[in-house]
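We read letters as residues; the fold follows as tokens. A sample entry reads:
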Amino acid sequence: MTSEHSLQVVGPRDQFPKVNLVEPTKSWYFLLALEVDHRPPFGFFLQSRRKRQLLEDLKTLASVSEKSYDVIDSGVFKALLIPPGQGAFLKKRPDVEIARYDVVLLVEFANEAALERVIGTEDWREAVAAASGKAHKTMQISASNVRRIGPVDHSRNGVFLFNYFFADNLQTNLDVWQYTAGWFQDQTALDNSTVLLPREGTDVSYTIINHCRWDGLGDILPALLFNKTFRPFVLANFEKNNTAAMPILYRLA
């Protein structure tokens, strides 16, 4: 539930319907994010040979991992574009690493013990190390699911969001995500989302990472570019609550 006392609301409260959430899953997730090609926000259609090979390597790793009874789902994603939405709060936190990851591997495990069994194997460690060696920057986390609108469908392509959040306070980050998620559900017909919470003690800049899917760019990009309520409602509430979003849109590799 949202901790109303910790949320500072900009504009009329509950201007949009509250988001419909379901119980978080008991699954655990491994996320490997890599910055391979330096590109402008709309330039990811250009792919280096190194990136193409890396994507094939990660798809092989995902395919092999799915044969394990410990693995529920997996996906390899390549960046499509970086949309509007970072907001002004990052200017106050110049030490925060801006997310520009153009390749992501996400693997869902039945539970934390299953995750540890797989990622602790020598083959897995070697594959992740090899992939990381092809990137300028890497981030790998183990995470639980802390909020959920619904499962994200990886069985068919679409437009996938990984939104890397930074906030001064985790609970406030969760509260403002939940408050503004109602806008996305109302304005973009969003019916799925899995919010990942990095395991305690993980050395990353991001407090949570939101992952979700739309069928196509037309379902989300016009809302971010042209909807007159996006900035005064979504971005303004982020900034008021010392929270910054770093969204990147992807397709399945």
